[in-house]
UniProtKB/TrEMBL annotation:
Entry EC number(s): 3.4.21.-
Organism whose genome encodes this protein: Paraburkholderia phymatum
The protein's name in its UniProt record: S1C family serine protease
Statement: the UniProt record of this protein carries the keyword Protease: yes
Alphabetical UniProt keywords: Hydrolase, Protease
Principal EC category: hydrolase
Length: 301
């Protein structure tokens, strides 16, 4: 019973800083009071910009102002006026190991606090999401998340919240957005309402390079990115990139997949020249692209 009571105590303590977020139709999602007057949640659960409400731990439902969303890390930040509730006690997700026990604490319906008990499935170093966001650590849960648990707090066995749960970053599995990532993205969303990332304005697909190209150009890799669409007036189009080109290098580094592109397009790259090597008509070509800032609602990378 001692272990069971300890778990219930953690859920109770963490639950005091967990809220329900009404930002979509039907079922609300969860959110966490990360700072005084600031709630973080999973961005994919926010489907409108106005009329967002938050149900607090005492049962009150109050209006919330959307500070910003970042689809790359799946984080959304809301501001609450006149609400002074204690934020969570945060921990470090990098301390987690596969097999560690964890508690997801949610508040997604009229029943109040809900908890899900499980183990950490796998962990790793910094990880770039398929949407281009950078997480400071890779933490996968052993299984998916129940409805309403996106935006929930994930607590370790010391009762510290190591991150925010989301179902949107890996198919069929729950992921944890580490606390370090939450801090960094929250700072940027509160400051300017968005997270800046570089933008080329290209749509691509990975392709295998012809053996003759690999031999002719002495390439130490055998894949590149075929350009299959260009954003009108985007940086790549302005630099002369054409549909059908195959990107092979960015600033002298291999361009084998979208991970290589995302790595070259951090916020520091905006406004800077990016040297691109590409294959066109079986010949190597080069061009310089001035990196733009990715539009917030644009599927091109």
């Amino acid at each position: 019973m001692d272990f069971s009571d300890d778990l219930a105590d953690i859920v109770g303590r963490v639950g005091r800083s967990v809220v329900a977020v009404h930002g979509r139709h039907r079922m609300p999602s969860s959110g966490v009071i990360w700072r005084h007057g600031v709630v973080v949640t999973a961005a994919h659960t926010i489907r409108r910009e106005d009329g967002i409400e938050v149900t607090l731990t005492d049962g009150r439902t109050v209006a919330a102002v959307l500070a910003g969303l970042d689809s790359g890390t799946d984080l959304g930040v809301l501001k609450l006026d006149g609400v002074d509730l204690d934020p969570i006690d945060s921990g470090d997700a990098r301390s987690l190991k596969p097999g560690h026990l964890a508690l997801a604490v949610a508040r997604a319906d009229e029943l109040g606090i809900s908890a899900d008990f499980g183990v950490i499935g796998s962990t790793g170093g910094p990880w770039r999401t398929w949407r281009g966001g950078q997480l400071d650590a890779f933490v996968r849960l052993d299984g998916g998340l129940r409805p309403g648990f996106s935006g929930a707090a994930l607590a370790d066995m010391r009762g510290q919240v190591v991150g925010i749960c989301t179902s949107a970053l890996m198919r069929g599995a729950g992921m944890v957005i580490p606390g370090m990532t939450v801090e960094r993205v929250t700072d940027e969303l509160l400051a300017k309402g968005r997270v800046s990332r570089g933008y080329l304005g290209v749509g691509t697909q990975q392709v295998n390079l012809h053996d003759t190209w690999v031999d002719k150009m002495s390439l130490p890799f055998s894949s590149g990115l075929l350009v299959n669409s260009l954003a009108p007036g985007g940086p790549a189009e302005q630099a002369g990139v054409l549909i059908g080109d195959v990107l092979i290098e960015l600033d002298g580094k291999p361009c084998r997949d979208m991970g290589d592109v995302h790595a070259a397009l951090g916020s520091a790259s905006i406004g800077q020249p990016l040297q691109i090597a590409l294959i066109r008509g079986g010949e190597r070509h080069a061009c310089s692209v001035t990196v733009g800032e990715r539009p917030q609602r644009n599927s091109c990378r």
